[in-house]
Amino acid sequence: MRQYQHVTDRICAMLESGVRPWAQDWSAPGGGGRPLRSNGVPYRGMNVLNLWAAAMSRGFASSHWMTYKTAADLGGQVKRGAKSEPIFYVGSITKQVENRAGELEDATIAFMRCYPGFNADEIEGLPSQFYARPEVRHLNSGERVADVDGWIARTGATVLHGGGRAFYRRSTDEIHLPEFAAFNTPEGYYSTALHELTHWTGAEKRLERDKGKVFADATYAFEELIAELGAAYLCADLRIGAEVREDHASYIKSWLKALRDDSRNIFRAASHAERACGFLHGLASPAADVADDARMAA
Questions:
Q1: pLDDT tens digits along 52-66
Q2: Which residue among 6, 9, 180, 218 has its CA within the 20 to 30 Å range from the CA of 286?
């Protein structure tokens, strides 16, 4: 699919320039929350990363994206010369196929489609809410956020504080974090905690992802990419500014290689990250309407 390559090329270019498109800055255009459909429902999976990257590279402030027809239905008009961005839809169909015994049986087949979407900044005449910036949660130095602390606690993960490193240890199923006061900003603490929580979801008794065995090998680096995306998505969901883990800059070369080797790899990483987010939301917010796997990349 041509759109795979388009998205991958842009993300690779941003990584090469030192920008991680998932590191959303609340003060930047379009920064802060997940991209939104016209009805206010957040996008998920690869669409989050792709539309964040588009907003960052093109300077859009609005979080809303929609089709030409939807804009017209809302009374808007796409500006002349406006450029659309691919928006991906993942679904499935059930059809009968012949098995090895020559018998017909039902099989579920997943598919991905793509349609053009426009940012509200390139549409005139929409209602005012489509041009509004996401609400910013400003945190002061040393300030803890009770609702986020509670959310983390409700996941049931064992989180131990102390020492100078942050990591998840699979052998003991424990997350280790430095003390809150050791971080320069509250955002740094929460971004790190959510990163390690994303790793925690990959354990065999949870989502069973292969973490890799050697530091910075391809599988290990791919799991780090999943955790970075997962933390960024969760920061957006919890209204916390995401901070980049600078100690993970060493993975960028491996990420670039993986993305160039197969343009679908960034879609796979985004799907794993979204699934991890859904799993954690299901634990921390059991009443929440968490999307099923078939909608994870939509």
A1: 999 999 999 899 999
A2: 180
